[in-house]
Design a protein that fits this description.
The chain is 72% helix and 0% strand. It is mainly alpha-helical. The protein is elongated.
Length: 280
Amino acid sequence: MISRIFLIFTLILSFNSCIKKNKDLIYEPIEKINAYDLYKEGMEAFERNDFFYASKKFSEAELNFKEVDFAAKASIMSAYSLYGINFYDEALENLDRYLKIYPSDKNVMYAHFLISIIYFEQISDEKKDIDPLINAKDKINFFLKKYPNTDYAIDLKFKKDLIENQLAAKELYIAKYYISVKKWIPAINRLKVIVKDYDKTIFIEEALHRLVEIHYHIGLEEEAKKYASILGYNYNSGDWFKQSYKILNKDYKISKKMKISDKKDKNKKSFFKKIIEIIK
């Protein structure tokens, strides 16, 4: 009997203790943060190039904005901030989320432009992995198809040309390897890819010359003449044509040519400054 009373007393004490603890755990709302102040802090940090802090503040502002337009603006600015410190993966995650949550936002075009740029900036040289080149080309093609008549399309068309040059360079690099080990068929196949898919690149002349060279070497003189005629018809003043002509005409002497240094355009316009001005 005494043990029962003791057990009941213990249970009562435990119950009262739980009630007290639950009272301590009751949620009390914190003071609401002003989303406009957070966005202002983010923009100030962005303008002084403190991109990590800016991204944090823009993300906080997005969560506190009631207006969808302002939340979308904060979201894309957070992504631009992450791009500013080369956090490419994080920036792409933010941009993907932005496009899913705010698909009809007025700044969607700039999100697609930034995605294209991020993929483009992750391209390495032709000796390395080809996937970044393909991914960048796909993203740029998407933008050019969706927003063809924009200033940003002009910039991306130039970048697409650079990508195609790198893809052609990769094919030529592999073809030269096959030539060095005397594997003529795979070398020819690689060179034909350049002729078929990358005929507007700077590597087309060398590719045609190598086809002349290989076919002549393996005794297919008619094929060599065919590629030499293509090279001569399109690039008859180039050095590669002269090299090919010498293969087919042994007595031909190649005259030396003065080199003219290329002039580089130093007036590169910053698209990102223009975009930020539009968004903010």
